[in-house]
């Protein structure tokens, strides 16, 4: 796990900054390509010296995954006394998340960290927010937007990690079904791409892909439907955190425990229970605590230090918080460490 203050030290190669005053904010602009076809102008807003910023950490749903991220946010708040508000959409609705974004802008927040539900659909909305405040992304990126930085898992690499575990679990090949809230989310697309590349040439075929729109009941019923309809499926794969518990419940309820393998993401209680009870074979765990802590720290630094913070942004504008593979051999130790981290 990355330490709380261990950030990449790569500097942005060139920063073209101009300073203008509007109200009480200092605004600077840096032209960067960010991997886009054309260079984009990314504005940075700095608050007056000595003022504490008002920051917001926006999730993409109400999953238990975010409780761990919240612990990281709370740690930063306890260390600094800086306001960081958790904003949690009740559903995986783009309209609801956009509404939260608009509310934060109208309330004068100095920094917003957001896990983007649908990057292509929301790029314009995020760019509008970037005209008024510092915006970074976490967990699910919007790489075509003007966001300043992405903090979280390199989801393609995480997909490859889980894909390699799938290959180990299916040494003779097989057929798998993949489940997620929406394949339109950047993290879902990248994880799936990593899995597909890892299983390529291994006689493993993805035969079903199902979305549940973060409806927990549908998440389970999707798995049950596939298990009942396709006796040839050897493994089920969940890309979002709540998919693990849904898969565990479906496998147990359908009598397929031990007959159909399961590989998932994240560390929800139902997933860890599933591993301990031999229902789920493996999970690829992200580090949401670090997402919460580091997002809070970066938002604060950008608002408080402006250009000085910009020069610390990595050249690829991403801070990878890493992943860990959890299976029956290490799930007990992992749970112990997790309890200490979030107490």
Secondary structure: elements and pairs:
Elements lengths: L19 E3 L2 E8 L7 E7 L7 E5 L6 H16 L2 E5 L6 H13 L4 E4 L4 H12 L3 E5 L11 E3 L2 H15 L4 E7 L5 H14 L4 E8 L4 H14 L5 E4 L4 H11 L7 E5 L3 H8 L5 E4 L2 H18 L1 H4 L7 E3 L3 E3 L4 H12 L1
Parallel strand pairs: 4-5, 4-6, 6-7, 7-8, 8-14, 9-10, 9-11, 11-12, 12-13
Antiparallel strand pairs: 1-2, 2-3, 13-15
Helix pairs in contact: 1-9, 2-3, 4-5, 6-7, 7-8
What CATH calls the topology of the largest domain is Rossmann fold
Low-confidence stretches: 1-26, 29-39
Question: Helix coverage percent of residues?
Answer: 25-40%
Give the averaged pLDDT, no decimals: 89
Query: Biggest sheet: strands side by side, in what order?
Result: 5-4-6-7-8-14
Q: Can you tell me the overall shape?
A: elongated
Model description:
By secondary structure, the chain is of the alpha/beta class. It has two domains: 20-152 and 290-319, Response regulator (Rossmann fold), CATH 3.40.50.2300; 155-285, Rossmann fold (3-Layer(aba) Sandwich). Helices cover 40% and strands 22% of the residues. The chain is built from eleven helices and 15 strands. It has helices spanning 65-80, 94-106, 119-130, 155-169, 186-199, 216-229, 243-253, 269-276, 288-305, 307-310, 331-342; strands spanning 20-22, 25-32, 40-46, 54-58, 83-87, 111-114, 134-138, 150-152, 174-180, 204-211, 235-238, 261-265, 282-285, 318-320, 324-326. The strands form three sheets. It has a six-stranded parallel sheet with strand order 5-4-6-7-8-14, sandwiched between helices. Strands 10-9-11-12-13-15 form a six-stranded mixed sheet, sandwiched between helices. The protein starts with 19 loop residues before the first strand and ends with a helix.
């Amino acid at each position: 796990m990355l330490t709380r203050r261990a950030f990449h030290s790569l500097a942005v190669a060139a920063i073209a900054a101009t300073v203008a005053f509007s109200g009480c904010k200092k605004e600077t602009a840096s032209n960067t390509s960010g991997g886009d076809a054309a260079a984009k102008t990314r504005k940075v807003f700095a608050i007056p010296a000595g003022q504490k910023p008002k920051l917001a950490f926006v999730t993409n749903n109400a999953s238990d995954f975010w409780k761990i991220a919240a612990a990281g946010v709370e740690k930063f708040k306890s260390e600094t006394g800086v306001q960081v508000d958790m904003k949690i959409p009740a559903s995986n609705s783009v309209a609801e998340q956009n509404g939260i974004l608009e509310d934060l802008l109208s309330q004068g927040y100095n920094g917003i960290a957001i896990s983007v539900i649908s990057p292509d659909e929301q790029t314009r909305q995020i760019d509008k927010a970037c005209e008024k405040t510092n915006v970074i992304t976490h967990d699910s990126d919007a790489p075509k937007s003007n966001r300043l930085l992405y903090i979280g898992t390199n989801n393609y690499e995480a997909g490859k990690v889980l894909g390699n575990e799938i290959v180990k679990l299916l040494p003779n090949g097989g057929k798998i079904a993949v489940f997620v809230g929406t394949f339109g989310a950047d993290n879902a697309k990248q994880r799936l791409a990593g899995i597909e590349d890892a299983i390529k040439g291994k006689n493993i075929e993805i035969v079903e892909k199902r979305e549940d729109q973060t409806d927990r009941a549908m998440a389970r019923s999707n798995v049950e439907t596939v298990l009942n309809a396709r006796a040839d499926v050897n493994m089920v794969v969940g890309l979002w955190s709540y998919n693990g518990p849904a898969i565990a419940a479906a496998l147990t309820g359908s009598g397929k425990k031990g007959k159909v393998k399961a590989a998932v993401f994240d560390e929800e209680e139902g997933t860890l229970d599933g591993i301990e009870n031999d229902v789920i074979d493996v999970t690829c765990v992200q580090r949401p605590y670090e997402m919460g802590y580091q997002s809070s720290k970066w938002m604060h630094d950008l608002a408080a230090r402006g250009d000085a913070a910009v020069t610390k942004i990595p050249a690829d504008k991403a801070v990878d918080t890493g992943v860990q593979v959890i299976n029956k051999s290490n799930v007990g130790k992992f749970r112990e460490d997790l309890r200490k981290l979030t107490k």
